[in-house]
Design brief:
single chain
Length: about 450
């Protein structure tokens, strides 16, 4: 842990802290401000205007855990609250607003350190001490990306430590000794992750199905225990939404608002489809410009490009589909029927480059380790199902680590404008796969490499 604190602490000092208005911070800060000032969990200043009493009505557009965390720290830190309120009052034009949040960013730094400790522990569980240390060193390559999530008041860091904590609890359950206690904890942590970022809700039934296959000779008990942990954690928020807003759901409006942004990419031409594989590479804009001319990648960008797919989905397609469906109450079902189910092949094809886009975590580091991680996942599946021994490699543990990350990568590509920051839980699988690969090379090819290099001359 001392090494983790030293490395991350030194790198953190070099980071530049952005304003509160950058990226999606205003969504969470707006809800947190309403919690502090009115006691209401609302949809935040970006989505809901004030009601007749002058304050925003109760809402459930976002999951509650992270805004509640921000609000708790705002009550303790007057400087953070002033910065939040200033940003809201100026409608994100916050050039003169403070952006201080030392306590909350300090907590997120500790979450990052806890994440790195879990990477080290999981590396040892997969392949022993050498893999633990080499995997930790490889994971440090992603530290600059992760430290941005420390400084941004968004869900990424909390979501990451909760999701990897759930995986670690599942690994402890697989190792035996208090197995049901740990699998219950895995369910709780998965539910807390869903209460932080709603997409993770779908990981819970997927994990239950995988656990059912995994424990096929042991009955339903572990699966039911995991689901009990998840349901008991989620239930209070669902009951709140039912009592206050009449909806027994995790969120309302978030899912279809996200999906329509994703569906806009299904309108790309075949030429644009080919370009997407280039433009979504790290530094892909420059490659696309060199191959196809100035502006070749503009449509794959964000708000700064008026003709981008993202702007198309967030603007005209959103308004058109809301009108056609009759509002957010029917929006998701309409999108699934009219777009996804009507053109499933198109949706699947476009999901593939979007999955690659999300897989390129930490730029070329992610590109390099993507193939290694996939290869070790395939090997682990083969070893596990054939019950074949593998010296120094525990395939079952690696699958517990990797499969949830692959599932979320595919899910995010199908339903969202997939980005690397949505898929930070790939980092442990990448780093540990890289460590396993280096160990395999050292064991099997070190002599051959030495013969290629020739004798050392003195």
């Amino acid at each position: 842990m001392a090494l983790i604190l030293l490395v991350t602490g030194l790198l953190w000092q070099r980071q530049t802290v952005e304003k509160f208005s950058v990226f999606d911070q205003p969504f969470y800060l707006g809800i947190a401000s309403d919690i502090v000032h009115t006691g209401r969990f609302t949809d935040g200043f970006m989505f809901a205007g004030p009601g007749q009493d002058g304050v925003r009505p109760y809402g459930m557009r976002f999951a509650p855990l992270y805004p509640a965390l921000v609000a708790a720290f705002a009550r303790l830190d007057a400087g953070q609250l002033r910065g939040m309120d200033c940003m809201i009052a100026t409608r994100r034009n916050d050039a003169g607003c403070p952006n201080s949040a030392p306590a909350l960013r300090g907590l997120q730094f500790l979450e990052l350190c806890g994440f790195y400790w879990l990477v080290w522990w999981l590396g040892g569980a997969v392949g022993g001490e050498t893999v633990a240390w080499v995997g930790l060193v490889l994971a440090f390559a992603a530290a600059p990306l992760l430290l941005r999530s420390v400084d941004f008041l968004m869900t990424e860091m909390t979501c990451l430590v909760l999701s990897i904590g759930a995986i670690a609890a599942a690994v402890k359950a697989a190792q035996g000794g208090g197995r049901l206690k740990w699998i219950f904890m895995a369910g709780v942590l998965m539910a807390l992750t869903a209460l932080t970022r709603p997409a993770f809700l779908y990981l819970i039934p997927a994990s239950a199905f995988a656990a059912l296959l995994w424990t096929r000779r042991r009955g339903l008990v572990p699966v039911l225990v995991m689901l009990a942990g998840a349901v008991l954690t989620l239930l209070p928020w669902y009951l709140r939404n039912l009592a206050v807003l009449g909806r027994f759901k995790l969120t309302f409006g978030y899912d279809s608002h996200t999906l329509i942004q994703r569906l806009a990419f299904n309108t790309m031409t075949w030429r644009e489809y080919g370009l997407s594989f280039i433009c979504w590479l790290p530094d892909g804009n420059e490659m696309g410009r060199a191959l196809a001319g100035l502006g070749a990648c503009d449509r794959f960008g964000w708000e700064e490009h008026r003709n981008s797919f993202y702007v198309l989905g967030l603007g005209p397609m959103l308004q058109q589909t809301l009108a056609a469906s009759g509002g957010y109450e029917h929006h998701l079902g309409y999108l699934l029927r009219a777009y996804v189910l009507r053109s499933p092949v198109t949706h699947l094809l476009v999901s593939f480059p979007l999955a690659l886009r999300g897989a390129y975590v930490a730029h070329w580091w992610g590109v390099a380790l993507l193939v290694a991680s996939l290869a070790w996942t395939v090997k682990a599946v083969g070893l596990h199902w054939t019950n074949t021994a593998a010296g120094g490699f525990r395939p079952g543990v690696f699958l517990i680590l990797a499969l949830p990350a692959w599932f979320m990568l595919a899910f995010n590509a199908a339903v969202a404008v997939n980005q690397p920051r949505y898929n930070l839980m790939l980092i442990p699988a990448y780093a540990i796969a890289g460590a396993l690969t280096l160990r395999w090379l050292a064991r099997n090819h070190s002599g051959r490499l030495a013969s290629y290099l020739g004798p050392v001359r003195r």
